[in-house]
Structures are given as C-alpha cells and as structure tokens.
Design brief:
The complex is a heterotetramer, with two copies of chain A and two copies of chain B. Chain A is α+β, with helices and mostly antiparallel strands. Chain A folds into three domains: 4-86, no CATH class; 121-229, Beta Barrel (Butyryl-CoA Dehydrogenase, subunit A, domain 2), CATH 2.40.110.10; 247-378, Butyryl-CoA Dehydrogenase, subunit A, domain 3 (Up-down Bundle), CATH 1.20.140.10. Chain A has twelve helices and ten strands. In chain A, helix 9 packs antiparallel against helix 10 (310-331). The model of chain A has no long low-confidence stretch (mean pLDDT 91). By secondary structure, chain B is an alpha+beta fold. Chain B folds into three domains: 3-127, Butyryl-Coa Dehydrogenase, subunit A, domain 1; 130-227, Butyryl-CoA Dehydrogenase, subunit A, domain 2; 230-388, Butyryl-CoA Dehydrogenase, subunit A, domain 3 (Up-down Bundle), CATH 1.20.140. Helix content of chain B is 56%, strand content 16%. Chain B contains eleven helices and ten strands. Chain B has helices at residues 3-31, 33-40, 49-57, 76-88, 95-109, 111-122, 228-267, 279-308, 313-341, 352-364, 369-388, and strands spanning 128-131, 147-150, 156-166, 173-180, 183-190, 196-202, 208-219, 224-227, 269-270, 273-274. In chain B, helix 5 runs antiparallel to helix 6 (111-122). Chain B is globular. Mean pLDDT of chain B is 94; it is low at 385-389. The chains are: A alpha+beta, B alpha+beta. Chains in contact: A-B, A-C, A-D, B-C, B-D, C-D. The interface between A and B is large, with 39 and 42 residues.
Chain lengths: 383, 389, 383, 389
C-alpha cells in the first residue's frame, strides 16, 4: 500500500493530475449541475478500482489516508480538471461518522459496501418548516422492542432518488427540554417498507432534491449511531469541513470562464462598459481566491477553522450570483433562452449559472445565518 | 375646460381605469392564473387560442386601435392597465407581442395591408408576430441584414433570417423587416409561405421563440406594408410602445412577486419567530418596496410622455428609462424573493419560479436594462445636440 | 392685500420667478452649505419687506396665506433659482405652532418679531445620547413659582449661534410612565442667563450645529405652549411637512449638475464607463423626481401623507450620496483637494457634496428609522 | 532548504514582522496618534521633522534600502508593516511619499545622484518628493509634458508644471519628470532653485499638495538622475511600490475605522438597546468586515507578487488589484462608519472624520479605484497578448 503522505507535494499532485486527465470522461468535465448516478457511475467505479474513492479515510478501512495538505491537493486537482462530485455522502459523512462513532459491526458491514458502490447514501437532516433552524426537526422514532418506528418527513434531500440508504436525525425524546436534546442519529435502508421518495423538480429543470416520507418505517435498534438522544452533537461536529467547501471559488471561477467565452464571441471586450463590469468581478474572484487560500492554509496546518470561515460562503455565493447576472445581461436578447445557445463559437448555456446561483446562498445555512454567526462570534456584537 | 372640469375628467378616467383593471384581473384569475401559465409551458402554441378570442370579445385587442378599424381608440395608458394585469397574472397570451408590437407596426404604417389585416387581428382571428431582429441580437431596428430584391416576374424575393421572433410557432404570419433599394421595408408573409423555415427554442417561461429563415420567399408587391422612412418610423414607434408595455407587464409582475414574498415572510417562522420580524429581512424588503415605487414612477412618466408627444425624443428617453428600471427591479425582486423564501423558492412547484422566469424573458426582450441605459444616454446626447444646433 | 390663491397657477409662478430672479443675490445661488445670518440677512429683509417671509401663514398674521398648491409653486421656484434657505425655524415651526396652540399674548408678541427679523429661532429637540430616540430626552424644567428652571443640554441645534430664541422640549414630569409623557414645549430667550452655546465644527469645516447648555435657566411659565406635560403630541404633529422636504430631489439634482460640469471639463462624456455610471444616476434622480411628484400631489390635494413618504428620504439621500461619490471618483487625482478646483472651466468644489451627503441619511430620523417605519407601517411586517 | 526549515524561516519572519508592527504601533501612539494628526492640519510642514528624524533613527526610512546605501535591505513586506501601522495611526509623516516613492525612484535608478542623496535621505536629513503628474491628473507616468532642453552654456533648462506634488511645501527638493530628446528623463532640483514656483492647496487631511511650476529652471547635467528607458523603468517601479504601500496604509486605516465603529455600536444605545444588537446594523457590519478581509487578501497578494517578480506584469496587476480594492473599501467603511455613528460621526471633534479624510486622500492618490480597475484590465489584455504572441 502506498503511503501518499510520504510523497512530495508536487509529485503527488502530478500523480493525481495525470490520473484525472487520463481517466475522467471528458464529456463530464465541468457539468453545470449535479450528476445523477446513471451518469457518474462509471467514474465512481473507476475511482473505486483505483482505491481513490475515500481520500481521507484511514488506509485501515480502505481509504487513501491523506493528510489535510494532500487532501487539498487532491481537491484542487479535481477542481482544476472540472471533475464532477460523485454521490459522496457515504465517503464524506457516513464513513468518518462510523469510523469515529460506529460500532465494529456497523463499520465492517457498511464501509466496504460504500467503497464497492453498493451503498449510496443520502442525508436526512432538513424538514419542511425547519429551514435553517435544523434542530426544530419533528420526524419521530419510537422504540418498539428491538426496532425504531419512524414517522415524519425529510425534505431537500439531495439525490435521494439514487440513494440506497439514508442517514438521518430523528426525535427520540419529544419531552426533552431543549430542542437540541432528544435527537438521535439513525441509519436506514431506503428499501424499507413505508419510505416514499418524491423528487422535487427545481426551476432549473432538474431534480436534485427530494422529499422523503416515512410512514411507520422500521429500522433495527442496532442502526443507531452513538448514544440515544445524543445525535445532535454528532451531527454538528460533522459539519466542520463543509464550511470551507461551501466557500470554494470554484463555481465563481467556472462561471467567470463561461462569461468570458460568451463575451469574446459577442465582441464585448471591445466595450469599455462590459470590460469594467467584468474586471470588477475578476477582482472579486481574485480576492476570494486569496482569502480562501488563507483558510485552506489553516486546514493544511491541521488547525480548527474559526467562525470567520462563514465569510467565504457569503462572498463566494454572492460573487457567483453577480457573475451569473452579468452573464444574462451580456447575452442580451438571448438572455432568456433555455439550454446552450450558439453565439458563433462554443455554445454557451446562459441560464444554468443564473439558476444555480439561486440556491447557493441558501443551502448549508443561509447567508443570513452566516452573517448572524459572524456578527455574534467574530465581531462580538451584542444580542 | 376649466380646472374643475379637468379634475373631474381626470377622476373619471381614473375610475374607468380602475374598473378596467379589476375586470382584467378578475378574468385572468378565472382563466387559471399561475396554474394556467404552468400548464402552458413547453406547449405549442404556448397559449390558449380560445382565451385569445375571449380577449378579442372583451375588446382588449382593440384598445388602442383607431375607430376606423373597429377599435376603441384609447391611449397607451389604458393598454398599460391590461398589460400590467396580464403580466401580474402570468397570462401566456402574446398581447404585447401580437397587438402592441406586430399590429402596432401595421397601425402606424397604415395602407392597404393594415386595412386588410387589422380588423381580423382585432377580432382575434389572425395572430401576427414581428420578425425584426437579426441573430446577433442588435436591438437597433435600423440594423437589418435580410434583403428584399425584385425578381424577373414582378414579384419580390425575401432572403435572410430573423431571430428572437416571439411565438413563431403560433403566429399566422410574420411582419418582417428587410433591406431594399429604398432602405428599410416591411413585408407581410403568411406563416406557411414556401421558403420559410422556423427553428424553435424554448424560453425560460416555456414559450417558444423562433429563428425564422427565409430562402427566396416570394411576396407580391401588395404584401409590402411600408418602405423607407415611413416604414422605419412605424417600426420605431411600435417597438417603443411595446417596450413601454413590457415595462407595464414587469410592473405587474414586480408587485405580485413582492406581495407573495411579503405574505410568505409574515407567516414563515424560523427560530420561533416569523422571518419577516428580523430587521435585516425587513430592511431588504423595504429596499425592494422602494424599487417597486421607482418602477411605477418610471412607467408612469413613460406613459405620460407617449400621451404628450408620442414620437418625441422625450418619449423615447422615457421609454428606455422605464424599461431599464423595470427590468432591473423585476430581476432584483425575483432574486431576492427566492433568497427570502429559502429552498422552497427554488422548487418548480412553487409559483415564484414562474415569476422569475417571466422576469428573465421580459427583461431580455426588446433590450435589457444595460442596453436601454445606453440608449437613454445616446438620446440625451442627441437631444442636447439638437437643442444646441 | 393680494389674494394669491385666486391667481392662476402660471401667473403666480411667473410673479414669484420674476421676483426671485430680480432680487435674489446671484452670488448666493445654490450655496453648498447652510448660510449664516450675516450672509443671508439682506435677503431675509428683502422677503420681509415684500411680505413674503411667511408663505403659509394666514394673512391675518402677516403671511401670504398660500394654499398647498401655491406654496409648492413657491418652493419649486426657490429650488429652481437656487434660493438659499433662510433661518426659517420661526416661519416653519414657531409660527404654525403658535397660530394653532399659542395664547393670544404669545401670538401678538412673537409673530410680528419673526416677520421683522428681530427674532431668529432655533429648535431644541435633540439631546446627547438620544439620537433618533427623541422622546428619551432628559433636559428638565422644574416649576418654581411663576417660572420654569431649566437644566440640561441640547445638541445638533442648527445655527443656534445665530438664534435669539429657542423652542424646546423639556421633561416636566420625570415620574411619567411612558417616556413620551411628561414632556412640555417651551419658548426660551437665548440671552437668558445660564445658556451657553457651543458651535460644533463638522468635517466639512463648517459650524452648522451647536450644543446648547442650560444651567438653571429661568423662563416665565407663560412661555409654555399648549398644556403642561403634553408637549410631545404637539411636537410630533409639527413634523408633518418636514417629511416631504427631506425627500426633495433638490440636493441630488444640484450635485448631478455639478458632476456634469466637472465631467464635461474633464472630457468624461467620451468615456463610456463614466457615461454608464452617470446615466444610472440620472435615472435614479429622474425616478426620484417622479415619485416625489406623486407625494407633492397628495399635499396639493390637501390630503395627509402616509408613512410611505419615508421612502423619499431614503432614496433621495442615498442617491445624493452615490452622486457625491462619483464626483470624487471623477475628479481623479484632484478628488481630495478642499475647496473649488480649476479643471479648465468653471471651478468645481469636488468635496462639498461628498461631505454634505454624509449627514443627509442621518438627520430628520435616520434612514434606518425610516426603513423601520416602512417595514412596520407600510408593509405590515411583524415585530 | 527542506520543507521544515522553510516553515521555520517563515515563522521567524512572521515573528519579526509582528515585533516590528508592535514597535511601530507603540511609537506612533506615544507620538500622539490621532491627536497629533488633528494638530498638524493646515500647518506647513504638515508633519513633524523631529518625529521624522526619530523615524530615521529607528531605521524605518532605510528598511528597503540596499545595504550599500546604509539601508537594511529588507523587502517591501516589511515596509508594508510600517505603512499599515502609520496609516492606522494617521501619522502625517510622508514616509510613502518621500521614501517609497521619491527615494524609491533614486534607488531603482541608481547612479551618482542616488549615491549622493540616498544616505542623507535615509538619515532623515533630506526629504525629497516626486513631481511626476501633469495638471490633467493623468496617472500614466509616461504622460509627461514638461520639457528639458539643452541651453547654450552646456546646462539644461526645465519648463513646465507638475501637479499633485505631495508635501511640496516641506520637501527639500523635487525629483521631476521631463521630456527630452531621449524620451523621459528624471532630474533632481532643490526646492529653492530659481524659476521654481509652488502653489499650494490643502487636501482633506489638512496636508498641502503643490503645483510646482518650472520656468527656465537651470540644472546641471549632474542633476540628471536617469534618462530614457532606464528612467521610465525606475519611475514605474517606484510608483507601483508606493501604490502597494498606499494600499497597506489604507488597510491599516480600514481596520481602525471598522474597530472604532464596532466599539461604538456595542455601547451606543437607542430605544433601550445597543445599536449593535439590531440585525440590520449587524449584517452591514459583517459586510464591512468581509470587505476588510478582501482588502487584506489583495494587499497580501500584491506584496507576494512584488517579492516573487517585482517588475512583472503579474506584480503590476496585483498592485492595481490591491489599490482598487483598498481604496473602495476604505471609502465604503468610512462612509458607513459615519452613518452608523450618527450625527457625532460628522463632527470635527470626533476622530472618525480624520479617518474619512485620510481615506479620501489615499484613495485619490496614485490612481483611484476606477483608474486601477481599468489599468488591471489593460495589463490583463497586454499579458494575454504577450502569452499568445
């Protein structure tokens, strides 16, 4: 087994880059939306065969065991080559969760199946009417002998229609004093009777999110992760790394690149007004890259991210939104045509960035919530 | 007329407009509102011809038509009342496209083609559309590449292609701009004329926009609507009037999207309180409200300018001012509305997306805000030079 | 005596316009700051001699008795010709106040002195630490036989150094349950012993505001206006018309005009980027003018302004601020020079608009307060 | 050097910079901070020569000077630490103007004038200033109208006028740009040279900026610092470095103005609550904080680019990026700071106005944000063409 961490950074980068360039399907580079399992399965299996599906898992469990520096190189190379996200909830959430809090039985049953692509996981956190107030969840799980009986509804569950399993937060003690107490963490098989998955079409014409209904669904008691009623603490601790990936400049860089292609075809770089707007956005992205790099360095040093990391998500998603608006403006009369439009060169999808920029400031904690966090925890403003 | 009589007349007109507004609102609501807009997406035609004929029966297609053609001879301000209500109700019928724009060109041009076509258009029997833009999207109506050349048999051959033609799948015929030896000319060609080919693309609303290509399309001299300066004037005026109507439709849409959002944030709770009670949300809502008021002000001034001096530089400038503001505000409000709604605002089943998509279409149509700000500046400079010359 | 209201609007406008054009000192047109008494006294006396000092007072009291329509024409012509504001607190505040709530003795003593320029009034409302929360005022007035004894401090008192009298809100019942109760309205002679006026220089280098200190200042009991402890209601009712004047497009139009002069001299109208920014501001001002006219019509019809009038102040002051920033930007290297700068034509004061745009969103109720008002009273958003 | 040694060296440098930062901060605070800045307004010179000599004694004027001139030979990053602290403390001494800019030109040009002047400059004995801009405010250093012509006696005559010369009242001499037959040339002229006339104007900070006019000013060939391409290169580099230092001063100022505002809104109460508890104020404060972080990021990248490749297009682009962001952020934060403070923020006695005025001066100096965004775009296009050529 290779000890990737012992390798020089540049050598490792080259190795990863070469593999991506040689093996990633070129038609799937920089997809404008999340790919469905049918589209991405081939690449998933390629990564699985290479042993690269779980970069951060310890080698003991079949992962690459990368340290933070190497893992960031891995991500940078993915982003550089436009490698799409796989259905990665098993790798990024369930794996680390079980490795830290799971029983030996849970680890030995679930982890290999994730690595073989047998199990695809989705995340059952959000509920209707809960929004950013995640802890107000209502889906209940009542113990009935050696099973939990689950009733309720999850929503905004990403790609649940492709998932075989769902990890979820359920209310196991409705009498608990604080809403964060009395919540447990459960693993549930999506084939269990009583589960209904309903995709939610979005305004971009895709079905990335689903509603998942639970009607007397039964799950073994052994499927609980961690202690009964202590699920909130576990879930919260798992959100760490997500906070930096939500602030990645990737989407903005991609959108700016598409805008440049469109603008070149339409001759807009000869228009000083366009050039001024484009330059302002270039600078917004350049400064985002710079601040992002500072937070990446913190991760590389193995230190904990502070609440100030929230600024990345705010600036990244709002910059992305501004770029997508200039894209629509630049397309002029073609600014409302759906799908790729031929401007006399490489066809450009004008609206996809605009649509995808809509939910960006909402998911992963709305930008309003992120601003509240910075106001209180970074600037120390009073309640 | 003395001041009191003028005030009374103004009050009467205001009353009439209010009645018109209420009757349009009630009718389109009865027809299905947003539900119907949703159902029409991706269909061809993208609207309901039965509803269209009812519009005709109600006289809405003949509001600004002179009485000689069987019209009501009312002003653009009355038409704006209809456009605003139809816009707010997301009605898919192409009233602005077919009536203010295409029939507007005929009306301003006059002549035998207009005499023949306007009555059946007003009656809802013929639906025309205007094919004026080239595929580069240039929004100066004088920018015409399609050609009209005399053939050896006394007929005329049209060649070229016209892009961004609204409802090209549904129209019974096209009014096309082409360049001949006199400059710009306008021709009427039936949709099924030999040599016409249409490539359709879906817009964000689900309606179809077409690229109409003409290969040696033969037209008789009687199909020529107008030529030269006269044609250009008719075209410019109809486009300007349609631009004001698009602004009115945007104002209708803006009001609905804002109210929908205000209603939502009053009842949607987070952390135990309605999100509309959070001050940051409140102040953003106030800024949207202010923008709504500005849009209404700009629209009002454009309608007034078209009433006072319809072909003046002032009317052109007011038109661009209205379209720029209304387009920006509509996109701003719809973007912010999605953000304030949270995830549900991004779902297809919630009506807000229909407003966002309609805002995208109307904002891009007939020149977006950036294009109209530029035009406003150009008109301003031109009129300054005129004044100093 | 002329019945101005019987005159046709256009005729009246012409009359006013001619008088302004023939009599207003040309060197005082469009002053960038509030004029001091020494500068404006001549014009004040000209208006007084003409009988035009108090356009809205009833003719009975020496005013012009203009109805709202005529008064707005009067204001429009002032603004059109760049006629400076006089020290007008006597006319706009004290006169209407006494006419409505004053005793016969107060009216016959004070009103003629205002019209003769003998009394100049200033407004003693704001206090340190009160800010937009006006009703939290602390300056006390205790009854001692037939006098009030006043102690405390007022601040942001406009041009108090020129005033002979101050009308003020004082706390006469510190035990009142609500802070709005127990407040009285007093008229005080500035020459009273114990009053100290300290001008507050501002960052624009002027002294428009003052602090006014009260140390056992005595005022006759007869100087109270209205009932004891009921001063808040009176003061609030007087703020009516101020709310529309705060939203006048005048400042923005003036600043835009100065910007145009500067930009022409610097050849900026050949720069599409400048032209785009300038045009956006032109449209902002044009739309402001349009919305302003709608509210003016309400006043002309004699109807009461609703809380939605607050939008004018927000948009007017923030537009003014944006214009003043573009002015500084357009001046380039000269953007930080104080006073008039020669750009090869009519010299332009680059910074004065920028400085004066600073307090504009603050005074008369900050724009934050105005937004709170609209949110609650217009949009009906919950508390 | 292996990775561990590099990391250790980087940590050492970071420690050194922290120490430098603390010592500068402590010293300028001891000198009087904002109080001193206030006292210096409108005075000539607009700073304290005694403090200047102390700066020299502390070595701050020689940080980036090569050791051959008695300097410390450190990088621009160390100089930025000083500039940031001086900016945050509103120190009126013209360190960037006289040292990074004027002495910087000498340092990059080298030669006999530099050999002669740099040691006394570093010692605080001579204070130079650079006179490069024409009265039209064009900020391209190659745009030079002043002329240098040989006279009959073997000397050279300078004619023309130079605007926006910082501290023209206090400088001991001017480095002027003039056009001769070789193109651009740089000359040293003492402040009291016959034919030099200075018209002073006050800046918003109260410091004086001068228009220096030269009528037949006679200079010896030995006063020529450099000529042609060599002169242009030295000038460009010094201006770029000074632009980065101005950005650093802005970053210092930005941090202070934001902290002052945060402190204020935490304690200032309205309606019984600290205004910093109102969510709308909080969210605006957060947006200012984000802008601060962006400004620091842009400055950091500019310093890194100057360390890696000081004369490259990349360094020029990073310079413009930093100046554009820092200028915008400083003006934004000072404007918002006044608004959040309310009336007191507009008074002269409150320190905030000093920050606003300093922000105005630094933002306008050496190209404002609009000018630098344009330059950034021009460099980007040039480097793209370079790459593809």
């Amino acid at each position: 087994m290779i000890d990737w961490n012992a390798m020089g950074d540049e050598e490792f980068r080259q190795e990863v880059r070469t593999f991506f360039e040689q093996n990633y399907p070129s038609e799937l580079r920089y997809p404008p939306h999340r790919l469905r399992w049918a589209e991405i399965k081939g690449w998933y299996m390629t990564l699985a065969a290479k042993g690269w599906l779980a970069p951060t898992w310890p080698t003991l469990y079949g992962g690459m065991g990368l340290n933070p520096t190497k893992f960031l190189i891995f991500i940078e190379e993915q982003e550089r080559w436009g490698v799409a996200r796989t259905p990665d909830m098993g790798m990024t959430m369930v794996g680390p969760l079980l490795i830290k809090h799971g029983t030996e039985e849970q680890k030995s049953y679930y982890l290999p199946k994730i690595l073989r692509g047998e199990h695809l996981w989705c995340q059952g956190y959000s509920e209707p009417n809960a929004g950013s107030d995640l802890a107000s969840l209502k889906t209940s799980a009542i113990i009935d002998r050696d099973e939990f009986v689950i009733n309720g509804q999850k929503t905004w569950t990403t790609l649940a229609q492709d998932a075989t399993h769902i990890f979820m937060l359920v209310r196991t003690d409705p009498q608990a004093k604080k809403k964060q107490e009395g919540i447990s963490f459960l693993l549930v098989d999506c084939k269990s009777p009583g589960i209904t998955v309903r995709p939610i079409p979005n305004i971009a014409g895709n079905e990335e999110f689903c509603e998942v209904f639970f009607d007397n669904v039964r799950a073994p008691r052994a499927n609980i992760v961690g202690e009964l009623n202590k699920g909130w603490t576990i879930a919260k601790a798992m959100l760490g790394f997500e906070r930096i990936t939500l602030g990645s400049p990737k989407q903005s860089q991609y959108a700016l690149g598409r805008l440049e292609i469109l603008a070149r075809q339409r001759g807009c770089f000869d228009d000083p007004v366009f050039l001024d707007k484009f330059t302002a956005l270039q600078l917004d992205v350049a400064d985002l890259v710079s601040v992002y790099a500072r937070f990446v360095d913190i991760v590389k040093r193995g230190e904990t991210l502070g609440p100030d990391v929230s600024l990345l998500k705010i600036w990244a998603t709002e910059t992305y939104s501004r770029i997508s608006s200039l894209m629509v403006e630049t397309a002029g009369a073609a600014g409302a045509i759906v799908g790729k439009v031929d401007f006399g060169g490489e066809p450009v999808d004008v609206l996809s960035s605009f649509y995808y920029a809509r939910p960006a400031p909402i998911y992963g904690g709305t930008n309003e919530i992120q601003r509240n966090i910075i106001a209180k925890e970074v600037l120390g403003l009073p309640s | 007329m003395n001041a009191n009589a003028m005030a009374a007349a103004a009050a009467d007109r205001a009353d009439e407009r209010r009645l018109l507004k209420e009757s349009v609102a009630a009718f389109v609501e009865r027809c299905g509102g947003a539900t119907r807009a949703r159902a029409m997406r991706g269909r061809s035609p993208g609207f309901d011809r039965a509803v269209w004929r009812e519009f005709a029966d109600l006289g809405w297609l003949a509001v600004t038509l002179p009485e000689q053609y069987g019209g009501l001879g009312l002003s653009l301000t009355e038409m704006a009342v209809i456009a605003e209500e139809l816009g707010g109700a997301l009605a898919p019928e192409p009233v602005i496209e077919a009536i203010t724009l295409a029939a507007g060109v005929l009306r301003h041009a006059g002549g035998s083609v207009a005499d023949e076509l306007l009555p059946p258009i007003a009656a809802g029997e013929i639906i025309p559309t205007l094919a004026w833009q080239e595929s580069d999207g240039n929004f100066d109506p004088a920018h015409v590449a399609a050609t009209a050349t005399a053939d050896t048999t006394g007929g005329i051959r049209l060649n070229g292609s016209k892009a961004f033609v609204p409802h090209a799948d549904a129209a019974d015929g096209f009014i096309v701009t082409a360049r001949d030896e006199q400059g710009l000319a306008l021709y009427w060609i039936p949709a099924d004329a030999p040599g016409v080919e249409i490539v359709l693309r879906p817009l964000a609303t689900g309606a179809m926009v077409g690229c109409v290509s003409m290969k040696q399309v033969e037209v008789a001299p009687t199909q020529r609507i107008a030529a030269g300066r006269h044609a250009a004037d008719a075209l410019h005026l109809a486009i300007d009037e349609a631009t004001v109507m698009a602004s009115a439709a945007l104002v209708g849409l803006i009001g609905k999207a804002l109210n929908m959002t205000l209603d939502y944030i009053k009842v949607r709770t987070q952390f135990g309180k309605p999100i509309g009670s959070f001050q940051a949300i409140q102040h953003r809502a106030v800024d949207l409200y202010i923008q709504c008021e500005l849009a209404q002000g700009a629209l009002g001034d454009a309608l007034a300018a078209h009433t006072e001096a319809p072909r003046s530089k002032a009317a052109q400038a007011a038109t661009s001012r209205a379209k720029a503001r209304c387009s920006d505000v509509a996109l701003l409000i719809c973007r912010e509305a999605v953000q304030m709604h949270g995830a549900i605002g991004f779902t297809d089943e919630y009506d807000l997306g229909l407003y966002l998509n309609r805002a995208l279409v109307l904002a891009a149509w007939l020149g977006n805000s950036a294009q109209h700000r530029r035009r406003y500046a150009a008109i301003g400079n031109a009129s300054t030079q005129e004044a100093s010359a």
